Amino acid sequence: MKLSRNYLLWGLVAYWLLNPRQAQAADTGRPYFGLPVSPASMRNDSMGAGHFGASRDGGSRSHNGIDLLVAEGQPVASPIDGVFTRYARPYANDARYDGLLITGTGRYSGYEVKLFYLNPLPALLGQTVAMGDTIGIAQAISRKYGSGMRDHIHLELRHEGVLIDPQTVFQLTA
Length: 174
Prior knowledge:
2 helices
């Protein structure tokens, strides 16, 4: 009898490892969120820090998301199941840089993810995407700001319209 319980336990562990979308963040009650890039490291360079709430524009505002380091041309994946709702531009006066908005579906209903500094795959506009699907290719933001800023994608997360610190749902490396 003990042997069968061990097999059952290991079977459940294996299932969870092979099906991470079924997992739930134990400490928050929120659904599991996938990483848009791997490895997922936070930006910290001579131009500033990429963590949520970091000072921007000389302290006149706070950072509404997180900045994850990328290499130009690196594929970017959807962190949730949802619909690619619209294109989003980080700069109204600079059309070289793009982004997108994904509106969550299913267990992600009520969540919105905004990603900047990537070229979205155009055929996906209006389409359903699954967590882990490639949704775009990272751009080189360093071309705008120079070598003092490392290339990164910017990620904002909202639930029911309320801004959430993405660091509370993503496992990031230092």
